[in-house]
Write a structure and sequence with these properties.
The chain is an alpha+beta fold. The chain has 3 domains: 8-126, Immunoglobulins (Immunoglobulin-like), CATH 2.60.40.10; 129-197, no CATH class; 204-391, no CATH class. It is 24% helix and 34% strand. The protein has helices at 120-124, 128-158, 166-193, 240-243, 342-352, 359-366, 370-376; strands at residues 8-12, 19-27, 30-31, 48-49, 52-55, 58-60, 67-73, 75-83, 86-94, 99-106, 115-118, 204-208, 215-218, 231-238, 247-251, 258-262, 276-279, 282-283, 291-294, 298-306, 320-328, 332-340, 382-391. The strands form 6 sheets. It has a 6-stranded mixed sheet with strand order 12-13-19-14-22-23. It starts with 7 loop residues before the first strand and ends in a 9-residue tail after the last strand. 35% of the residues are buried. Mean pLDDT is 81; it is low at 36-41.
Length: 400
């Protein structure tokens, strides 16, 4: 067996005397489609599309074996990961002379993305729900085909009004049609069971809250909800309708046949600055995460602002702001989802900064699909939506 290459080392100690090492590693990453045209950030055919990683706000490039070792000053450090315009972050403490490790994995679906940051086992579970749902859907589809051939096919074949090939095609169509709803149902049931619970990292305190007895925390997927008298759970998600427009029509796999496929890219120019969150006038540290915000029961005014794209030390336009007022009862946690439209944000930036074109914008423009993507992704730059309420202490966990 060929040995894994040693991770590349990046020095970010800044001359500190007390230092340690943080090893970052990726698993379950997306694979690049075989494109006819490639760009500076587009991997070769069949190569992984590596997530974009930043430590304390500074990008770090994964090297051989999808790993990198970062030499840092001893103490806490914020790690941010971006994949397909979705973000997750976690604070990792590096001990003097020690080595800390952080794995991250991504899900398979663009429409329902997941980023897991934590242990290797936890990161590897990021795609487990999708894979098991695919397997269940395939097995059920096969069973439907077998049952159809045994029960439906003889009756249709014996009917004089049914053409010759219709019975066989009807059974095949029924089996294929059964795959999609079964897969969706299996995914929902598996997600409710929470396969990411095993090895899920603990919630991390971030700031004091309006409730002196409980702190504001970030909650990884699958982790138990912290206690609170009342709370708001805030999650972030790229607008799915906008992401679905980032597609190109190209030949895949060298067959010469044209197909419309998703286009994935994690270029630095697409990185958004962390959101600024304000709850009843109280500001929280900027961070990409699922937030658990204890509040006093009653009216809550939630405000979220996206400063814009990261460009060195500046956050160039466009920014986006959304507000939501909601009532939170005692013993209740209100779930609020914040969606941001990456297509609209990048289009607005391109109007103001023609030199800051995203890689996916360039690729879609070359394939004559950029204008179509902009037209079809009409949605606000930023929205806040109250999804529902849940009782605190009922054993709920952050959505997987």
């Amino acid at each position: 067996m060929r040995a894994r290459p040693a991770p590349e080392t990046v020095d970010r100690t800044g001359g500190a005397e007390r230092t340690g090492t943080l090893v970052l590693a990726a698993c379950n990453v997306r694979r690049a489609n075989a494109l006819e045209r490639t760009g500076p950030f587009t991997p070769p055919q069949s190569a992984p599309v590596l997530p974009l990683v930043a430590v304390d706000g500074r990008p770090v490039r994964l090297g051989a074996g999808m790993r990198v070792a970062v030499a840092l000053a001893a103490g806490p450090h914020l790690v941010e990961v971006m994949d397909d315009h979705h973000y997750e972050s976690r604070t990792v403490t590096v001990d003097e002379g020690g080595t800390a490790r952080l794995w991250f994995g991504v899900g398979l679906l663009r429409s329902e993305p997941r980023l897991h940051l934590g242990s290797k086992e936890y990161a590897a579970r990021s795609a487990q729900v999708d894979r098991r749902a695919e397997q269940i859907g395939a097995v059920v589809s096969l069973l439907v085909c077998v049952a159809g051939m045994a029960l439906l096919y003889p009756r249709l074949d014996a009917h004089p009004a049914v053409p010759e090939h219709v019975p066989f095609l009807s059974v095949i169509a029924l089996a294929v049609a059964a795959f999609w709803p079964v897969r969706a149902l299996a995914r929902a049931l598996l997600r409710r069971r929470g396969p990411a619970r095993v090895g899920a990292p603990d919630p991390q305190p971030v700031a004091p809250s309006a409730d002196p007895a409980h702190e504001v925390m970030t909650v990884p997927r699958g982790a138990p909800m912290p206690p609170a008298a009342a709370a708001v759970r805030l999650s972030f998600r790229a607008e799915p309708k906008a992401l679905k427009t980032i597609r190109i029509r190209t030949s895949v796999g060298g067959t010469g046949r044209k197909r419309t496929v998703p286009y994935f890219s994690n270029s630095p120019v697409d990185r958004l600055a962390a959101p600024e969150i304000t709850v009843n006038g109280h500001s929280l540290p900027p961070r990409w995460a699922t937030w658990w915000i204890p509040v006093r029961p009653g009216q809550v005014l939630l405000r979220v602002r996206l400063p814009g794209f990261v460009d060195g030390d500046r956050h160039p336009a466009p920014s986006a702001t959304a507000e939501l007022r909601l009532n939170v009862e005692a013993g209740q946690a209100r779930h609020v989802e914040c969606r941001y439209n990456v297509v609209e944000l990048a289009t607005a930036r391109l109007r103001e900064r023609p030199d800051r074109e995203s890689e996916w914008q360039r690729v879609l423009r070359e394939h004559r699909r950029l204008d179509r993507a902009v037209r079809r992704s009409r949605a606000p730059r930023l929205t806040l939506t109250a999804l529902g309420a849940e009782r605190i202490g009922a054993g709920d966990r952050a959505s997987d």
